[in-house]
Each structure stands twice: as C-alpha cells, then as structure tokens.
Predict the structure.
Amino acid sequence: MEQDSTKVLGMDPQEIQEWVESFDQVVREEGQESAITLLDRLRSHAQSCGIALPFTANTPYLNTISFEKQAIFPGDQEIERRIKSLVRWNALAMVVRANRVDHSIGGHISTYASAATLFEVGFNHFFRGRTDEFEGDTVYFQGHASPGVYARAFLEGRLSLKKLENFRRELREGGGLSSYPHPWLMPDFWEFPTVSMGLSPLMAIYQARFNRYLEDRSLKPRTDAKVWAFLGDGETDEPETLGAITLASRENLDNIIFVINCNLQRLDGPVRGNGKIVQELEAAFRGAGWNCIKVLWGSDWDPLFERDTDGLLAKRLGEMLDGETQKISVESGAYVRQQVFGGDPRLLKMVEDLPDEALRTMRQGGHDPRKVYAAYKAAFEHKGSPTVILARTIKGYGLGESGEGRNITHQQKKLNEDELREFRSRFGIPISDEQLAETPFYLPPEDSREIQYIRARRQALGGYVPARKVRSKPLVADHDALFREFLTGSEGREVSTTMAFVGMLRQMLRDPEIGKVVVPIVPDEARTFGMESLFRQVGIYSSRGQLYEPVDVHTLLYYKEAKDGQILEEGITEAGSMASFIAAGSAYATHGINTIPFFIYYSMFGLQRISDFIWAAADMRCRGFMLGGTAGRTTLAGEGLQHQDGNSHILALPIPTMRAYDPAFAYEIAVIIQDGIRRMYKDGENIFYYITVMNEPYAMPPMPAGVKDGILKGMYKFRASENKKSKLRAQLFGSGAILREALQAQEILREKYGVSADVWSVTSYKALYTDGIDAERWNLLHSGENPRVPYVSQCLADSDGVLVAASDYLKALPNLISRWTPRRLASLGTDGFGRSESRAALRDFFEVDARFIALATLYELFREGKIESAIVQKAVKELEINNDKPNPLFS
Ligand SMILES: Cc1ncc(C[n+]2csc(CCOP(=O)(O)OP(=O)(O)O)c2C)c(N)n1
Ligand SMILES: [Mg+2]
C-alpha cells in the first residue's frame, strides 16, 4: 500500500514531481491554451516514437466544474429549499392518496424524489415561458416524474386541489390528471409525451435541429432558446436515447441540454451494478462530441477534494462500482467510512474529523442546488456543441429506510405513518401528527414568501412551464387551382401514384401560401421516389450550406445542399425522420408556425418499425402527411419478404387520429391532400394522414363527376357495369394498385362468364370501419331513435350481386367492414411473407390478381345458387389457376 506505483515502473517520484511542476509553470505563465498545445505536441511526439497512449474518453470521477469555477448561486437557497420540500410533499401525497383509494392506480414517488433539485433549479432559474416576445424554452420532462410537475403547478396556482385529488382518475367529474405527460389528455398543459422511454431524447434532438432549420429558413428569428430533455439513466439503454447524439454534435446544436438523472437505478435494480453508468455515458457523449458536465458530488465534498492533492480520493471513487455506491447510500456512516475510505490510512485520515452522521449524509451533486445551478449555467452558456449533464442522485431521496436507494423503490406507492412522519419532519412540512394519516396536500397562503417567490421567479422567466397553447393562425387553404391539374388524368401517360404525389409536392412548394411551410422529409430514399428534381428546386437543408463541389454538379438534378434548403434529407433513420415529422407537425403549437410535413419513406419501415413514435405523434396532436412509398405486398416487385408491405393499413387502425388511405389514382391523392390541408390547417383538426403510394406505372384516369365525397369517406363507384340486365351481378372492391386488377376482372367476368360487375374504389377501409363502428355505437345507445346507417351500407343499399374485395393488404382489412355489407363479402388479400418476384407472379402467388377476383366472384355466385359448381371448376382451368398451390399464408 505504501509503495508508490511510479517506483514499480522504475521512475523516481521526484522526477515526476519536476515534470508536474514544469507543466504547472507553463499553465501559470503561458495560460491554458499553451498547456493544451504542449500536451498535444507531446502526444503526437509519443505517437511518432511508437508509443501508443491508452485511449480514454473519460475524465476522473469528479465534478467537471471545480469549486473555483463554480458560478455563484443567485437564488434564495433557503426559500427554494422550502418550495422544493412542499413540492416533494404534495407529489408524494398525490400518489399515496390515490393508492389509498384504489391500490391499483399506481404512480411513482421515487423518480421525482430523486429529480426534485434538477427540476426546481430549472423552474426557478432557467426554463423560460413562451411569450409574445420570446418563443420560450422547450422542456421534455422525464415522464415518471410527472407528480412533481403537477405538485409544482399546484403551488403555482395552475392546478386545483380537486385535480390533484384526481391524479390518475381522469374520468372523474371535473377531470383529473393524466398519469404521464400526454398532450392529448391535457392539451393546455403538456407539450411532449415522454413516458415511452427513449423517444423523448431522440425527439428532443430533432426538435432542436428543427428549431435551427426554422431559423436558417427565416421562418423564425434566431434566439438562445433551449431544448431541455430530462432522462433517466436506465432510459439510456433504449437504443433511441443515444441513437441521434452524433447528429446533435455534427449540427453544433448548442441549443440542446440533456440532463440525465443518474440515480444508478432503474425499475428492477441497478443500471450498471458491475460498472459505472456515469463513466459509460460520459465516454459515449464525449466520444460523440458533446460537452459533458458531471455533477457528482455536493458541496460538502469540496473540502475533501481540496485536500486530495495526490488524487487518492478521486481514484478510490473512480474504482467503486455502482452496485457498491448504491449500497453505501443506504448504509450507516461507519459503513461509508469503512467502505470508501477504509482501504488506505491516508484516506481515513482525510475524514477523521468528520463524525459518522456527517459521512452518511454527504450529498450527491444532483441534490445540491448550487452544483446543479452551476452546471445549468455552464450548459446554457456553452457554445458550439450540445451539452449533457450527468447528475448523481439517489432514487427515492428522502423516502426513508424503506424507499431510499432500495431496489424496490421504483414500485413504492405507499408510506406507512412512521415513514410519512419522518418525511414530513425531514422536509419541515407544516402538517401535524394528527393530520398525517390523511396525508393532506399543503398549499401556503398566497401572501406567503414561498408563493410570492414562485410567482416572482416565473414572472421573471416569462410565465409558466409546461404550458401548451396553439398559437398559429389558420390558413386560408384555398388550393383548388393548385390541385386542379391532377384531377384531369395523365392522358394515357403511365405514371405511378408516387410520381403523381411528387408532382403535387412540387406544386405545393411553389404555392404562395404554403410553399414556404411545406417540409419534405425523406430518409435517404428521395431518388427511389423520383424526388431528385426537388433537390434543385428547393435544396436540401444543411446548416453549413455546401462546402464541397458535389460530384454531380454538372448535372441538372445535382445533390444541392443549402443553408436555406427546404428538404430534410435525414439519412437512413426512419425514427429520426419521424422525430422531424413530429417537430414540424407540432410547430403550430410549439412555435405558432403552420409547417406542413410530408414524410415519405419505404412503407414497410414506417408503421411496422416506428409505431411508438407515430403513437406519440398522435398524442401530441401532430398534423401532416406520412406517405408510405413503394407500398403494396405485390406492387413492390423484387424486393421480397422484408420490404413488401401488406401490413401497414392494418397497423394504422389503432392510431385514433391517423386517417389512412390506399388510393389508386392521382386525383384521389389530390382530393385527399387538399382536403387534409383544409381540415388540419384551416379548421384546426388534430389529425394526420397516412397515404400509401406505389411505384407501378399506369395511366391515370380523369376524376369522374361527383366522387370527391366518396374518396374522402372511403369508397365510391368507379366504373359501373354497362350491362344492367344481366342476372349475374357482382360488386368488386379494389384499392390502390389492385383496383386495376378488379377492373380487369370486371372485363373477364363480362366477356367470359356473362357477369356484370360494378367496380368500386375503396380508398380507406379504416375510414369505413371507423364510420361503421361509430354508427353502431350510436345505435346501441339510442335504440328508440332512427338508426344511423353506416356509409358502407348506404353505398351498397341498392346494389345487386355478390361482393368481392381485393387489396394488397391482409384479408382482415376488407373483413373489417363485412358487418355492414348487405350480403357476404369475400375478401382477397396478401397474408403471408412476401417474395422477390415480378408483380404478375406475386399477384398470382397471393391470389389477388384479376383471375382470382373473377374466380372468387364466380364462387360467390355458385354459393348463392346462381351458377353451377361446374362453371367455377371450369373457370379454374380457363383462368389457368393452380388449385393445388400452397397457401401463401403458410409458405
Ligand atoms: C419503452 C418503455 N419501456 C419500459 C417502461 C417501464 N418503465 C417505467 S420507469 C422504468 C425504469 C426507469 O428507470 P430510469 O430511466 O433509470 O428512471 P428513474 O426512475 O430511475 O429516474 C421502466 C422500465 C417504459 N415506461 N417505457
Ligand atoms: Mg434511474
């Protein structure tokens, strides 16, 4: 122990000391810059001598901001402590009371208990409200800490006692408080849903980048507004949490600050029992180019570090595993002395004049407002790169023996009377022993110092946070002229619906009202969708412009990056692109700007891959258009099993505000988009659109008269049969590219089998289904009144014949509406894994081509007793259908 490690390496400690002194002299006399240059020079020299320096992205396990560099805390620490204690109490009371009434209600005490100082310093000194003059800061609050945010809003006079009593009881009279941040449920309060962990850090980064985009495109003034994201340390295991951190540094986003609450615990136990989460995260963030500020130790540690001239204490703290550290937080002072300092007499000497009790209560940095303030201030002032603050805290701080730092603390919802008493006394809450059993909320009088202080601070910072307000003005949305050209058909020219959409996008980008606020977003598939002409038209956004000469500069459609470029070309990240969609789709509230996102992507990698983000977008009341490109299990030929999407229209069903369309023709898309812009940006509806577009080229017909309403409602008759007299009748439903198969089947049936069929374009099974269940529900509740008739039933009321539907999606999709059809509905679809093949082969394989539609029609006629089975059997041969082929669902 006594032996110096330098001697083992054969070096004289005296010699080392001389090196250190020379270095100190450089720092003193030449300054920091020179010291850095010197070290840099030595490092490259070492390298040229063949000495490989061990790599570390870590700094010692100490506060990044030394005591000498620490900004002075400007607040009234005593009164802020009182306020924080009251918030703590009310947050605790909210959960405890709710679970007393009904123990299944749940709620979290321990997350906020550890994050209280991190939040309160923000509320008192940093988070700026949104005013007419200043856009305000954007704060993503750690979802499980929401009781603390509610408790503070209660002190601020923004939430009533009744609301607090109804925490997690939202259906009670007068409403309650949602469990977590949900703008859908509390649209005047929460702005960002954060509780599905991992989403908020990624959304926050793209939000910060979107803010820059708005500035660089002169859609808003450049300000020093910040995006703050409060995360859990366990949350960093979600791949999304760290997934975009290099974007933030690459883009020099000094407008984002992550605060990671490192309480070393997650739900079941330690985040890194056998490691050190703070060091792991420091390495990851520093490696990615972030400014990293560690806030590990509270002020009472400062004197110890001052005495730690040879770095022994720093070394000891650096080698302790998180599992050990967690144990120390729940043990006695004597244990701390033994475990932390006991291994070296020099360490023991450092703490010999500190009693055990003082050792036990030495605070973590994240519980010390002075340390937290200094970190926030440094983060706020930092320029050129994003900042992450890694703050050490204790989970369940203040919850006493049963809760603090224990593995079970995350689940704790109740405190017994002793525990409540202890908490009350520790935080000085003016509630008597007799009242404890009831655990009342505590609100100081309006003229109390606490309330006055809160009011003054929030006023100075521009109002309350969080608060959500729609500040954009409605658009006029008079776009008849813009969309007119798409209603007249392509005059025989073969185009895909994707090409048609891109044509509309090009026009929208030229429109005087919406041209500037359209935000095209694409994850590295612009060429796939034929969007390269837009590169030149509006440019690709790059905060640096274009610093190089692009390889294709001599071509017309070169890869043009520009500082005011409009396209968000996100690279291969559907999650990141969706986060941009969310930022743009909610800017009407966040910024009061009606940006209209058009996010176009490979359809299989949307609802299937990033549905949780889409769910969050819906919760946030996002507006905009998502376009699933190269859609359709049999329409996207060649790409095979992972790419061919026959699922997304089913996956769109659960998202309440998403309107999903599978259009076949250009005019259908034009009608849907024009109406969508009107509904969302003029009428202010909180909906968004999912439209599948395909890459199969075919002639676009002109829009028949009188079908607009049907397109929007989900179905309309596209081509009636010419022969009304036939006894053999059918109604064929087609969607997307498969509509053309239905049209071909109409011909086959007429020519070969004397069946006269009408063909319907079903643009949205989801819309039909939603309408049907809505009508059904109303009827259930109003049996004495005239029943409502679902739109599907209305359409088919006077129709004759058998019903056959075919789509490029699961058979379940048409089945959704079969309850409201006047007769049985036969459903063809693409259940099963895709294949790499041609369209024709795929449609045969999945049994959705014209032949199968014709066969299904004949079979239905046979079932109805209208034709003999022999005709159906003969059709199998005539149509060259292999009736022994394996079921695509199982093959
Ligand atoms: C995507 C997702 N998975 C799981 C959960 C359930 N869950 C809620 S809190 C929690 C632990 C959180 O630990 P941490 O991030 O360290 O936050 P702390 O409460 O410790 O501050 C888990 C697993 C969730 N909310 N979201
Ligand atoms: Mg944690």
